TrEMBL record:
Keywords: ATP-binding, Ligase, Nucleotide-binding, Purine biosynthesis. InterPro entries: SAICAR_synt/ADE2_N, SAICAR_synt_PurC, SAICAR_synth, SAICAR_synthetase, SAICAR_synthetase_CS. SUPFAM superfamilies: SAICAR synthase-like (SSF56104). This is Phosphoribosylaminoimidazole-succinocarboxamide synthase. Belongs to the SAICAR synthetase family. The keyword S-adenosyl-L-methionine does not apply.
Amino acid sequence: MPVNSKLYEGKAKILYTTDDPEVLLADFKDDATAFNAQKRGSIKEKGTINCSISSKLFQQLEAIGIKTHFIDSPAPNQMRVRAVKILPLEVVVRNIAAGSLCQQTGLPLGTVLQPPLVEFYYKNDQLGDPLLTRDRLFLLALATVEQVDTITHLALQINDFLIGFWQRCGITLVDFKLEFGLDSQQQVLLADEISPDTCRLWDASEGDPNRRVMDKDRFRRDLGNVEDAYQEVLRRVLKVVEATN
């Protein structure tokens, strides 16, 4: 395969090979999708914003011992990452009831979940990324028992850190999606991204249920000011990271 050839293109990123088979280049796109790509659009500078936020958060997580695929960010919308085999699971951690959890269970929006809920979804667009039971997950051989236990433990560790980090940003972490992959040593690494695309974030100082939204729900629900919300999240992240360093 030629150096810097396109390896894969997803909804939010393009992955390219590099001269090192263990390293890939992720190019973050401005494209926006929702409802399994049934709704499409673009968000100005989304790629740069999400890459910047993800890079900062991956570095913060590495500093507390969470292993990620992040290496560095050679350009504002690009990230060099370790090559991993992505496990076909979307891992969702929920701290507050919102979105599909409310729709499927009848829980009122804003219900605090104690302890946090960790859910697994089958990463399969054709099937609509269905919610999995553990038995179905193992029936489909999507991961081993040990890998699922490791991922669950890591997801809760990441959640603990992110709750505190977003609180320092004046933001409430409602829920978020993670993806994990296996490196060449079969080690589980946090992969993909952590951004307003993958997190449900509410402005902690705002009581209005629409104005408080600072994530992709603004795009999903046609709330407007999507770019402004993403920019504000980045501004707060950079402020907290600078204060920490």
